[in-house]
Amino acid sequence: AFGSPVYTEVAGGAIPIGIARGFANQEIVVEGVATMYTGGYFAGGGNTKFYIEDETGGIQVWVDDGEGDVTVNLGDRVRVQGILLVYRGAMELAPTSEGVEVLEKATDSSRWPGTQVPLEDAVIDMQNLPGRLVQTQGTVARLEEFSYSYELDLVDEAGHLLSVYIDKLTNINVDAITSGETYQISGVIEVLDANQRMY
User: For residue 143, what is the enclosing H or E element?
Assistant: First the structure.
Protein backbone atom coordinates (compact mmCIF):
# COMPACT_ATOMS: atom_id res chain seq x y z
CA ALA A 1 0.00 0.00 0.00
CA PHE A 2 1.15 3.53 -0.74
CA GLY A 3 0.29 6.70 1.10
CA SER A 4 -0.83 9.88 -0.61
CA PRO A 5 1.82 12.18 -2.17
CA VAL A 6 3.64 14.57 0.13
CA TYR A 7 4.86 17.79 -1.47
CA THR A 8 8.20 19.03 -0.18
CA GLU A 9 10.21 22.09 -1.13
CA VAL A 10 13.97 21.58 -1.24
CA ALA A 11 16.03 24.77 -1.10
CA GLY A 12 19.78 25.01 -1.26
CA GLY A 13 21.83 27.19 1.03
CA ALA A 14 25.01 29.13 0.43
CA ILE A 15 28.19 27.26 -0.37
CA PRO A 16 31.72 28.31 0.65
CA ILE A 17 33.24 30.79 -1.81
CA GLY A 18 36.39 28.70 -2.24
CA ILE A 19 34.26 25.79 -3.45
CA ALA A 20 31.90 28.00 -5.47
CA ARG A 21 34.83 29.27 -7.59
CA GLY A 22 34.90 25.82 -9.20
CA PHE A 23 31.36 26.07 -10.62
CA ALA A 24 31.86 28.24 -13.72
CA ASN A 25 28.74 28.90 -15.80
CA GLN A 26 26.44 27.59 -13.07
CA GLU A 27 24.03 29.33 -10.72
CA ILE A 28 25.34 29.46 -7.16
CA VAL A 29 24.59 31.11 -3.81
CA VAL A 30 27.40 32.42 -1.60
CA GLU A 31 27.67 34.53 1.53
CA GLY A 32 30.57 36.68 2.65
CA VAL A 33 31.82 39.96 4.06
CA ALA A 34 32.34 42.83 1.63
CA THR A 35 36.04 43.59 1.14
CA MET A 36 35.32 46.25 -1.49
CA TYR A 37 32.30 48.50 -1.68
CA THR A 38 30.06 49.35 -4.64
CA GLY A 39 31.06 52.47 -6.56
CA GLY A 40 34.81 52.18 -5.94
CA TYR A 41 35.70 50.30 -9.12
CA PHE A 42 34.47 51.20 -12.59
CA ALA A 43 32.27 48.33 -13.81
CA GLY A 44 31.02 49.64 -17.15
CA GLY A 45 28.27 52.20 -17.73
CA GLY A 46 25.31 51.61 -15.42
CA ASN A 47 26.85 48.55 -13.76
CA THR A 48 28.41 48.09 -10.35
CA LYS A 49 30.75 45.61 -8.70
CA PHE A 50 32.15 44.73 -5.30
CA TYR A 51 34.05 41.88 -3.63
CA ILE A 52 33.09 39.51 -0.83
CA GLU A 53 35.16 37.00 1.13
CA ASP A 54 34.66 34.17 3.60
CA GLU A 55 37.12 31.85 5.35
CA THR A 56 37.60 29.81 2.14
CA GLY A 57 38.07 32.46 -0.55
CA GLY A 58 36.95 35.68 -2.18
CA ILE A 59 35.07 36.61 -5.33
CA GLN A 60 34.06 39.58 -7.45
CA VAL A 61 30.33 40.32 -7.74
CA TRP A 62 29.38 42.18 -10.94
CA VAL A 63 25.80 43.45 -11.20
CA ASP A 64 24.64 44.32 -14.70
CA ASP A 65 22.64 47.56 -14.62
CA GLY A 66 22.97 47.60 -10.82
CA GLU A 67 24.38 51.11 -10.37
CA GLY A 68 22.08 52.98 -7.99
CA ASP A 69 20.06 49.84 -7.19
CA VAL A 70 22.71 47.86 -5.30
CA THR A 71 24.66 49.42 -2.43
CA VAL A 72 27.18 47.41 -0.44
CA ASN A 73 29.56 48.90 2.13
CA LEU A 74 32.85 47.57 3.48
CA GLY A 75 32.10 45.03 6.18
CA ASP A 76 28.50 44.29 5.14
CA ARG A 77 27.61 40.59 5.28
CA VAL A 78 26.07 39.80 1.90
CA ARG A 79 24.29 36.86 0.27
CA VAL A 80 24.57 36.68 -3.52
CA GLN A 81 22.78 34.40 -5.98
CA GLY A 82 23.86 34.45 -9.60
CA ILE A 83 25.75 32.83 -12.47
CA LEU A 84 29.50 32.39 -12.07
CA LEU A 85 31.26 33.73 -15.17
CA VAL A 86 34.88 33.86 -16.29
CA TYR A 87 35.96 37.21 -17.77
CA ARG A 88 39.58 37.63 -18.95
CA GLY A 89 40.62 35.00 -16.43
CA ALA A 90 38.76 36.51 -13.46
CA MET A 91 35.87 34.72 -11.76
CA GLU A 92 32.88 37.03 -11.39
CA LEU A 93 29.52 36.24 -9.92
CA ALA A 94 26.77 37.89 -11.99
CA PRO A 95 23.47 38.27 -10.12
CA THR A 96 20.50 40.46 -10.90
CA SER A 97 19.86 43.37 -8.52
CA GLU A 98 17.40 41.11 -6.68
CA GLY A 99 20.14 38.49 -6.26
CA VAL A 100 22.10 40.68 -3.81
CA GLU A 101 20.90 40.76 -0.20
CA VAL A 102 22.67 42.58 2.62
CA LEU A 103 22.17 40.28 5.62
CA GLU A 104 23.96 42.45 8.19
CA LYS A 105 25.13 46.03 7.96
CA ALA A 106 28.78 46.76 8.64
CA THR A 107 30.14 47.47 12.09
CA ASP A 108 33.68 48.38 13.12
CA SER A 109 34.31 44.77 14.12
CA SER A 110 32.88 43.27 10.92
CA ARG A 111 35.58 44.62 8.60
CA TRP A 112 37.51 41.82 6.93
CA PRO A 113 41.16 42.06 8.05
CA GLY A 114 42.88 40.83 4.92
CA THR A 115 45.72 38.31 4.76
CA GLN A 116 49.38 39.33 5.05
CA VAL A 117 51.32 37.72 2.18
CA PRO A 118 54.83 38.08 0.73
CA LEU A 119 54.94 39.94 -2.58
CA GLU A 120 56.05 36.75 -4.34
CA ASP A 121 52.83 34.97 -3.30
CA ALA A 122 50.73 37.93 -4.44
CA VAL A 123 52.30 37.52 -7.88
CA ILE A 124 52.29 33.74 -8.34
CA ASP A 125 49.70 32.12 -6.03
CA MET A 126 46.85 31.80 -8.52
CA GLN A 127 45.22 28.96 -6.59
CA ASN A 128 44.44 30.64 -3.26
CA LEU A 129 44.62 34.43 -3.63
CA PRO A 130 42.41 35.62 -6.53
CA GLY A 131 39.39 37.46 -5.15
CA ARG A 132 40.91 37.82 -1.68
CA LEU A 133 41.85 40.93 0.27
CA VAL A 134 45.58 40.86 1.02
CA GLN A 135 48.31 43.09 2.42
CA THR A 136 51.76 43.01 0.88
CA GLN A 137 54.91 45.10 0.87
CA GLY A 138 57.37 46.17 -1.81
CA THR A 139 59.31 49.00 -3.37
CA VAL A 140 57.52 51.28 -5.84
CA ALA A 141 59.22 50.96 -9.22
CA ARG A 142 56.66 52.82 -11.37
CA LEU A 143 53.71 55.14 -10.84
CA GLU A 144 51.71 56.20 -13.88
CA GLU A 145 48.45 58.10 -14.34
CA PHE A 146 45.78 57.12 -16.86
CA SER A 147 42.39 58.64 -17.67
CA TYR A 148 40.45 56.66 -15.06
CA SER A 149 43.16 55.13 -12.90
CA TYR A 150 46.70 55.08 -11.61
CA GLU A 151 48.99 52.09 -11.88
CA LEU A 152 52.05 51.37 -9.84
CA ASP A 153 54.49 48.48 -9.77
CA LEU A 154 55.72 46.97 -6.50
CA VAL A 155 58.90 44.90 -6.55
CA ASP A 156 60.71 42.83 -3.94
CA GLU A 157 64.41 42.08 -3.55
CA ALA A 158 64.08 38.90 -5.65
CA GLY A 159 62.63 40.86 -8.59
CA HIS A 160 58.99 39.77 -8.30
CA LEU A 161 56.76 42.51 -9.70
CA LEU A 162 53.12 43.13 -8.75
CA SER A 163 51.05 45.64 -10.73
CA VAL A 164 48.66 47.66 -8.56
CA TYR A 165 45.59 49.22 -10.16
CA ILE A 166 44.18 52.26 -8.32
CA ASP A 167 40.78 53.29 -9.66
CA LYS A 168 40.23 57.04 -9.44
CA LEU A 169 36.71 56.32 -8.11
CA THR A 170 38.34 55.25 -4.82
CA ASN A 171 39.64 58.82 -4.33
CA ILE A 172 42.97 57.41 -3.13
CA ASN A 173 45.56 60.21 -3.04
CA VAL A 174 48.73 59.06 -4.80
CA ASP A 175 50.54 62.40 -4.54
CA ALA A 176 52.57 61.26 -1.54
CA ILE A 177 53.77 58.03 -3.20
CA THR A 178 57.42 58.22 -4.25
CA SER A 179 59.26 55.80 -6.54
CA GLY A 180 62.05 53.96 -4.77
CA GLU A 181 60.26 54.00 -1.40
CA THR A 182 58.86 50.89 0.31
CA TYR A 183 55.11 50.71 0.99
CA GLN A 184 52.63 48.27 2.47
CA ILE A 185 49.50 48.13 0.36
CA SER A 186 46.12 46.45 0.95
CA GLY A 187 43.91 45.41 -1.93
CA VAL A 188 42.12 42.61 -3.70
CA ILE A 189 44.19 40.20 -5.80
CA GLU A 190 42.62 39.48 -9.16
CA VAL A 191 43.54 37.72 -12.40
CA LEU A 192 43.64 39.69 -15.64
CA ASP A 193 44.64 37.86 -18.82
CA ALA A 194 46.62 35.17 -16.96
CA ASN A 195 48.48 37.65 -14.72
CA GLN A 196 47.72 38.59 -11.14
CA ARG A 197 47.38 42.20 -10.09
CA MET A 198 46.13 44.05 -7.05
CA TYR A 199 43.09 46.32 -7.06
Answer: strand 133-145
